[in-house]
What we know:
By secondary structure, the protein is of the alpha/beta class. The protein has helices at 2-30, 49-55, 71-87, 99-111, 116-121, 126-129, 135-144, 164-177, 187-202, 209-223, 233-254, 260-279, 291-294, 324-332, 367-373, 391-394, and strands spanning 33-34, 60-63, 92-98, 152-157, 285-288, 302-306, 312-315, 336-348, 357-358, 378-382, 397-399, 407-409, 417-424.
Amino acid sequence: MRWLVCLFPLVVFPxxxxxxxxxxxxxxKSHPMTLKSISPDETDTTDLDGFGKAVGDARIxxxxxxxxxxxxxxxxxxxLIQYLHEKKGFDVLAxxxxxxxxxxxxxxxxxxxxxxLENFEAGVFPIWAKSQQVQPLxxxxxxxxxxxxxxxxxxxxxxxxxxxLRSELSSDVAGILGRLPDDTFSRREQGDIxxxxxxxxxxxxxxxxxxxxxIGKFRVAVSxxxxxxxxxxxxxxxxxxxxxxxxxxxxxxxxxxxxxxxIRETQMAKNFLALATGKYAKRKIIVWAASYHLMRNPxxxxxxxxxxxxxxxxxxxxxxxxxxxxxxxxxxxxxxxxVAFLAAEGEWKLVQFREANQVPPARPGSLDDLLNNAGxxxxxxxxxxxxxxxxxxxxxxxxxxxxxxxTEAVWPEVFDGFVFTxxxxxxxxxxxxxxx
Length: 436
């Protein structure tokens, strides 16, 4: 009978694996909430009620994206934004775009002197502003501007991202220079300061060390001003914030590649926390950004990399990273519901690219693969509401929320929900003429 004892573990082990696999497949078929559409034109929102219930009383909702070239994700996010605005009372849309730029962009929307697209691209990165799949969102922002509770646009990035700052920054600087005491800067220095800020705004050139020194002197001069009729307190406060972000943008460009991401993430978190606890402290905020920026607990995530000779190794890609979402979560975690996106097939493309990139096949057994095999076209998964004993809360599983790379984590510790779109479609460049 001894041989039966020896064989018993060999029989039980594969049976246990099969049982676990069956449990996951059953869950993948029954638990995700079906989304009948990702189109922003869909007027029936009953399929989003489960999403709304999952969001619950959260005051801040993060909406990520795998890459900045995910057309289907842009459409899905726009539909969710409309739902959150109309059904859940969210009235601020914070973009991964310039703090200064989006202030000017929102002011342009309010004036309505230009087209909605021109107002939007005044502040928001071209990767979104120039995307056909983002145009429904832009039109929605413009349409809601006259409502009692419009969806207000703001930004939290320290970089210069839109068109308006490139044309207005040096003139804003000149407006301050013209009001400073005559002996503050010589005529030549004033001209050099404007040129230095022009270079900052353009991005193609970078100020010389001498010009950076002049920018610093200009900052000191403005920061030392006392508010009065000539320099209202609101203007000086605005310039204080602008200087901080302009300096952070300079630091990002001057630092080496290992340090610049942390500088940007730290400043973005500081900007957003200032908005969420200050200007918008009593308002409900939607955040549009890459899923990378919105993760929490980066130390829990490993990237799976193929070994040259075969097999897979795990790399701690994000373990030492400073991440915007993680920093914000430490302060406002109880108020946040974060959503990342997954896809199983299709293509993605940044608007400036001619050729699309193929979404690689999902790794067998990954979350993307489970959802695909379960037959879902579009679905929402609430991770936050899973029971404590659920296998997703205790198991590390592969998923691809970051650039379609295979990453492994206990995902409820990283995001609160996933939106799955089976087929990704590329972001396409907006035509030169669009129907406003």
